[in-house]
Amino acid sequence: MLRRGYLNFLMASLGEYHEEMIRGAQPRAFSCDAECRGFYIRILSYTMTAIQRYGDIVIRFDNLHEFFNVKHSPYVKPAARKFLEVVGNLPVNAIMFTNL
């Protein structure tokens, strides 16, 4: 399992941006095999999954279409821009986004 301290760090980093949504979210741990461990957190506007496989940490954000609201806006909203700044500073090996 990814260390609890790392989970707390991620939550704190994202929590600076939208603390209230994260406060109510419960992380769910999973383990695919001995080399792949992680957790996911479902938040109102997206789901965050963090996976550690062979030492590399990957974070995936799913269902971001509601958060970015791409269909109704031709540009990135200020809230989404701040979210990308916060995520871009996370100490991970890769970040993936889906459903934009």
Alpha plus pi helix count: 3
Strand order in the sheet with the most strands: 1-2-3-4-5
- Overall 3D geometry? globular
Order of helices and strands: HEEEEHHE
Helix content: 25-40%
Q: Mean pLDDT, nearest integer?
A: 66
Number of strands: 5
Describe the structure.
The chain is α+β, with helices and mostly antiparallel strands. It has one domain (4-98). It contains three helices and five strands. The protein has helices spanning 4-23, 65-68, 78-88; strands at 28-33, 36-43, 46-53, 56-62, 94-97. The chain has a five-stranded mixed β-sheet. Strand 1 (28-33) and strand 2 (36-43) form a beta hairpin. The protein is globular and about 35 Å long. The mean pLDDT is 66.
Topology:
Layout: H1 4-23, E1 28-33, E2 36-43, E3 46-53, E4 56-62, H2 65-68, H3 78-88, E5 94-97
Parallel strand pairs: 4-5
Antiparallel strand pairs: 1-2, 2-3, 3-4
What attributes characterize this protein structure?
100 residues; single chain; five-stranded mixed β-sheet; 3 helices; alpha+beta
Give a short summary of the structure:
With 100 residues, this protein is of the alpha+beta class. It contains 3 helices and 5 strands, in the order H-E-E-E-E-H-H-E.
